[in-house]
Design brief:
This protein has 368 residues and is mainly beta. The protein has helices spanning 18-21, 24-27, and strands at residues 7-9, 31-36, 40-43, 47-58, 72-81, 86-95, 101-116, 130-146, 151-169, 184-196, 208-218, 228-241, 246-259, 267-269, 283-285, 287-299, 303-315, 327-339, 344-353, 358-364. It has a single domain (7-364), classed as membrane protein fhac: a member of the omp85/tpsb transporter family (Porin), CATH 2.40.160.
Length: 368
């Protein structure tokens, strides 16, 4: 269950009855500024999560360019979960005035828990996994300049420090022979290219597309323990179905790495965004390819129904990927409109996997 507390400006006179202010038509049209939400959420990786998530929605455009500057978000999060995970994070995703620059990133600390089954082998049993508990300190940021037609060029950096690694669970699942199993410090930097033709970064509507490419080079000279490279691709397409007013959405991602990649820097299959239903990290390795399709159908003014399917896999190398190792998932959900102007939705999804697992997700915003 999601709990919502809204702080906003009401464009109404003081004599307006409170029951009219609380009518759904009024709530979704509030001039929303700050949204502490959700106070409670759920996912397979965290279990029940409670805490304080303060999101600030704003438009950085001046009075003359607000219409051509997309909305931005900055957030502060504190979260504690039933799996004894603690996260403190500040995040931002900002289009500056006239969209001259796009800045996206996060920094924080986590006392985190996750599971390790296997690196790629599909033979691992769902109930046989190693439990990893660790401290994580991180900073990541993308800074890109608009060079015309909603296209951005810049650089990204990523710092990630894993300490106080504690292992428990099924000791037959071998972890210690993997680089970085006792902790790691990495620092990478590299170029970024973005083509962002979405009308809204929180919930795109109508015909739109998005493509992001980046390469990160992790070097000992930057203060990291390991030298390796990561190449990431994220491509999305949104198609309006005029007959039903629904939206057909596609996404394909690739996370490719080479070199001495530590355990917690390897790509994880499964999340609340893609391959929903799989516990994040059910499979992990140096290479990950995945794709999904989602159909979103408006139902009245405040609800959207969604159905999705996905497929993907991990592998040590691209040449070792096989169709026989492909993982798949499908599911559906509902989105509830919180604010019409900024197109903010609460999302509840249920995914079911080829391995027979269910994943339940309650989050803010669309999956992609």
């Amino acid at each position: 269950m999601l709990g919502f507390f809204i702080i906003a400006k009401l464009h109404a006179q003081h004599k307006t009855p409170i029951w009219k202010k609380l009518h759904p038509d009024s709530l979704v049209n509030l001039n929303l500024k700050v949204l502490p939400v959700p106070v409670a959420s759920y996912s397979p990786e965290t279990g029940l999560s409670v805490g304080f998530n303060l999101n600030y929605f704003f438009n950085a455009g001046d009075s003359a360019s607000k219409a051509t500057t997309r909305n931005s978000l900055a957030g502060l999060e504190f979260r504690y979960t039933s799996r004894k995970q603690t996260t403190i994070q500040a995040s931002w995703s900002i289009y500056t005035n006239q969209e001259k620059y796009f800045i996206n990133g996060a920094t924080g600390f986590a006392d985190f828990y996750e599971r390790f089954w296997t690196l790629t082998s599909p033979s691992g049993d769902n109930d046989r996994f190693r439990e990893l508990q660790y401290y994580r300190t991180y900073f990541r940021n993308t800074f890109a300049k608009n060079f015309g037609k909603q296209s951005f060029l810049g650089f990204a950096l990523n710092y990630n420090r894993i300490t106080n690694m504690r292992l428990s669970g099924d000791t037959t699942v071998k972890v210690n022979n993997i680089v970085g199993a006792n902790g790691s410090t990495v620092f990478g930097i590299g170029p970024v290219v973005l083509f962002d033709h979405r009308d809204n970064q929180f919930s795109p509507s109508g015909e739109a597309w998005y493509a992001a490419f980046n390469a990160l080079f992790y070097m000992n000279a930057l203060g990291g323990q390991y030298a390796f490279q990561q190449y990431n691709v994220d491509i999305r397409q949104y198609n309006l179905i005029k007959a039903t007013k629904g939206l057909l959405c596609f996404q394909a991602i690739g996370n490719l790495a080479s070199g001495e990649v530590p355990l917690l820097e390897k790509s994880r299959l499964g999340s609340n965004m893609i391959m929903r239903g799989y516990f994040q990290g059910r499979f992990r390795d140096n290479q990950l390819l995945a794709a999904q399709v989602e159909y979103r159908q408006p139902l009245g003014r405040f609800l959207v129904l969604a159905a999705f399917m996905s497929a993907g896999q991990t592998a040590p190398t691209l040449s070792s990927m096989r169709l026989s190792n492909m993982e798949s998932a499908a599911g559906g959900g509902v989105r509830v409109l919180l604010n019409k102007e900024k197109k903010i939705y609460a999302r509840i999804d249920v995914g079911y996997t080829r391995l027979g697992n269910f994943g339940f997700y309650a989050r803010l915003g669309d999956a992609f």
